[in-house]
Structure prediction request, 160 residues.
Amino acid sequence: MSARPATAPGRRFDRRIGRRIGRLYCVLAGGCDLATGLGLIAAPRTVLSLMGIAGAEGDASVYLRFLGAFVAGVGASYLYPLLLAAFGAPDRPGRLPAVIEVTALVRTGVALFVAGAVTAGALATPWISVAGTDAALAALQLWLLGRGAFGASTGSGGPP
Prediction:
């Protein structure tokens, strides 16, 4: 008897393990984005300094707070399906994969914009860490999604 390789290219996770990985990812990514967003709302200069980015002066802080609301909303979107399940809402198999697909799209857009802005000199070089993080997380999400870590795919062709 020959042993099967533990991970073959394109192989899906065991359903139970995949769901655990998917949920853990959502808690970590969602929690980090939610905390960062709330931090940008409450203390934008402090959060930027923790990221190694020079703080904005004067009127720019309102835009950073607005950005914080957006970042917090993205973070909350990862947690939303998990909270619904925790409070006994009916299970909708495509809910979590849809959140993962949309947040991967948002992260890709942010990564492209920020990388372009840094390249053009419109944002300081330390902002490239935002582009790199978002690009890496978008790629990871799509990889995990393709291996079934978030449950049923939204592209199943079935009814919504």
Residues 15-146 form one domain. DSSP finds five helices and no strands in the chain.
